[in-house]
Specification:
Blueprint lengths: L9 H11 L5 E6 L4 E4 L14 H13 L2 E7 H18 L4 E7 L6 E8 L4 H5 L5 E3 L1 H12 L6
Parallel strand pairs: 1-3
Antiparallel strand pairs: 1-2, 3-5, 4-5, 4-6
Length: 154
């Protein structure tokens, strides 16, 4: 049975999606050993709407995955190990090519940021970025491999 939400005109559903999802232009995802978790000053993302039915999943997923700059932050090891499943999801819903921009906090640091977005709509945010040194994914992988032997555990 279709959701009552689907009986509303799309313009109204669009306004509802704007209320359900963050008002900010960016969504931060913290990379842990085996997962990504949302970091949001307003709490969690109302992703449960994606589970209501297939049509809402496609429609709300399209709104979510095309409207934000997603920043995967954490250690080099965790970010590089966990961004690919999210990248596959983003590509599934993207109306444009998915761009990945990588930023390192330096060879001496264990942390990075991978910024992913569908299209170029949020490139202004990246151009104004004042943190991290732009790198390629290959450079970050090399940094992570090289730093692995130098890190001491206490």
């Amino acid at each position: 049975m279709p959701s009552r939400l689907l009986t509303l005109p799309y313009d109204i559903r669009y306004l509802i999606y704007k209320e359900l999802f963050p008002r900010e232009e960016q969504i931060y995802l913290h990379a842990y050993e085996k997962t990504l978790r949302t970091i949001s000053p307003t709490g969690t993302i109302a992703a449960n709407v994606l589970l209501v039915c297939r049509q809402l999943h496609v429609e709300a997923g399209g709104f979510l995955y095309n409207g934000y700059l997603f920043n995967v932050v954490g250690t080099k090891k965790d970010c590089l190990a966990n961004y690919k499943p999210f990248l596959r999801t983003l590509r599934k819903y993207a109306r444009d090519e998915v761009n990945i921009n990588a930023f390192s906090n330096g060879d001496h640091s264990t942390t990075i940021c991978l910024s992913l977005q569908a299209g170029d709509a949020r490139m202004g945010i990246l151009n104004r970025r004042r943190r991290g040194e732009p790198k390629t994914l290959q450079e970050l992988q090399a940094e992570q491999r090289g730093a692995g032997s130098e890190i001491l555990t206490v």
